[in-house]
Write a structure and sequence with these properties.
Chain A: Keywords: 2Fe-2S, Iron, Iron-sulfur, Metal-binding. Chain A: Its cofactor is [2Fe-2S] cluster. Chain A: GO terms for molecular function: 2 iron, 2 sulfur cluster binding; electron transfer activity; metal ion binding. The structure holds two protein chains of two kinds. Helix content of chain A is about 15%, strand content about 20%. By secondary structure, chain A is of the alpha+beta class. Chain A has one domain: Beta-grasp domain (Ubiquitin-like (UB roll)), CATH 3.10.20. Chain A has a five-stranded mixed beta sheet. In chain A, a hairpin with a 5-residue loop joins β1 and β2. By secondary structure, chain B is α+β, with helices and mostly antiparallel strands. Chain B has one domain: Cytochrome p450 (Orthogonal Bundle), CATH 1.10.630. Helices cover about 45% and strands about 10% of the residues of chain B. Chain B is built from 16 helices and 13 strands. Chain B is globular and about 60 Å long. In chain B, about 50% of the residues are buried. The chains are: A alpha+beta, B alpha+beta. The interface between A and B is medium-sized, with 18 and 25 residues. The complex binds protoporphyrin IX containing FE and FE2/S2 (inorganic) cluster.
Amino acid sequence: MPAITFIHPDGKSDRVETSDGESAMQAATRHGLDGILAECGGNAMCATCHVYVDASWLARLPAMADDEDALLDGAAAERQPASRLSCQIVITPDLDGLVLKMPERQV
Amino acid sequence: MSVSGSPVTGGPSAIPHLDVDPFAMNFFADPYPTHEVLREAGPVVYLDKWNVYGVARYAEVHAVLNDPATFCSSRGVGLSDFKKEKPWRPPSLILEADPPAHTRTRAVLSKVLSPTVMKQVRDRFTAAAEERVDLLLEKRSFDAIADLAEAYPLSIFPDALGLKPEGREHLIPYASVVFNAFGPPNQLRQEAIERSAPHQAYVAEQCQRQNLAPGGFGACIHARVDEGEITATEAPLLVRSLLSAGLDTTVDGIGAAVYCLARFPDQWQRLRGDLSLARNAFEEAVRFESPVQTFFRTTTRDVELSGATIGEGEKVLMFLAAANRDPRRWDKPDSYDITRRTSGHVGFGSGIHMCVGQLVARLEGEVMLTALAKRVARIEITGEPKRRFNNTLRGLDSLPVTITPA
Ligand code: HEM
Ligand code: FES
């Protein structure tokens, strides 16, 4: 199963194993990482699963849908070009090694 | 209430038939033992009283919510099947709709109630919460339902919508009709509908464009007509959705949170020690009390769910509240823990119909609990809480409390 790395705002990092078809958000919450709130449970409605995608990975992710784009404007932490909602990133084998940075705040 | 858990024998799908009425007064008074019976009887049960299937475990409730093509909403999310019975009011264009119709109306309300819009109303909602707490600190002893859980949303939500000051007393009674009407034809539903005419007239009038103040949620919905996203006849009905679902639910949500924090003083002290827990304290109260207890779906085809076969055109009752306390999903489900990871609870539903107003509800809950925890050292329940009975909503009618200033 692919593993992905979450970097906390303080620079510490956590590498987590994902299970089949899981989103990055689900992997983070299943492993109890505090930096991802996911208040809406992955329904693309809350923007509390915001992440900054590592520069080397950004172009390798599938493009975002309009609703994700709109929601990111309302994210609590600053929106950057690398911003994504982690509930919308489904981990496929080619994303093994993905690096996601968590923002200072989610609400 | 007697419960017979005897499975129907012979068939491939041994679905337990239960003699349980989840819309009876004695059930509402204490639903938890019956929720457990429903969960433990099997993944899918049949309720003979109303001839409906029921799901009370987290996995099945979540599965039904997330398969809207099989478990549809357009035939009504109450017991009444719109294919067989005339709906008591024109159906909702969002709640009681399926894709693709739902997708379009949903996009409009999502934009009107988006995280970006919440940033704009946040300061106003916060100031009103602080004002309300100032007032309560002067009183010291009050009814936490009327004076807090109702008074606070009433002081901000109708204004946020852009409603006229006159006639707002119809709002809570109207919502109570709407939520009673999802239930079976029992006394609660019949009486609610019989008395609904004046409330319906008020709501129909308020939903018109000329009656909604510029800048409010209502006006924003109508503005989408100009963009061609919805028609001029659809807009008032979408405003109606916010009037139906946006007030009473938050009254019960805030009421639930205060009731929890008053009952569990250790959690109150934890919150006082770390105000950043306020938002999750509200969320956990929505899981723990589940202000919206149930919704129905109707099957669009024969379907197998966790080994049970359900035919086409059957009503399926989802026990959101039971799923939110399913020990298969939650650790210590019956304890109120404000540090719990609440993500995934179904108090706001899940999937395409998941509450479009959830950000409004959370904002109200968060700022109110923050304002309280900043200024109040203790909340004491000083009299017997009284329950308010509704076919769908769970909440209190009164909760006498005394607060001590910090
Ligand atoms: C604590 C407060 C609230 C709770 C517990 C709650 C609960 C729910 C639930 C369980 C659903 C799902 C219905 C279904 O799946 O059939 C829902 C949908 C909905 N809610 Fe809420 N709600 C709350 C507050 C609000 C607020 C504040 C608004 C409006 C500002 C609102 C507007 C709606 C609307 C329009 C829908 C229909 C969405 C759709 O069908 O796509 N709700 N709510
Ligand atoms: S979990 Fe809510 S938007 Fe991702």
